[in-house]
Amino acid sequence: MSEHELDARNLLCPLPVIRTQDAVNRLQPGDRLRVHCTDPGALYDIPTWCRINGHSVYEIVQNGREITITVQVAAGEN
Q: Is the pTM of this model over 0.85?
């Protein structure tokens, strides 16, 4: 398992989800992607995208305006 970072700060919907999808497509099953964003809609959009695509939300942390969502890539994705 590897950990990766994605800077999606200052991007508005739907870009944080699109960038997350593009990044996850380059990762291996079990990898984690930490997405840093500032769009409050990402709190709903990224977990919904994960649920639809079989990935897991490992952690969500809010620190002021910044939101960090850690996604764990599902088995069978690559």
A: yes
Of the residues 4, 9, 11, 13, only one is catalytic, namely 13
Q: pLDDT tens for residues 45-59?
A: 999 999 999 999 999
Bridge pairing between strands 56-63 and 66-72: antiparallel
End-to-end Cα, the chain, rounded Å: 13
The CA dihedral of 64, 62, 48, 5, to the nearest 10 degrees, is 100
| Residue 37 is a catalytic residue | no
Domains delineated in the chain: 3-72 (3.30.110.40)
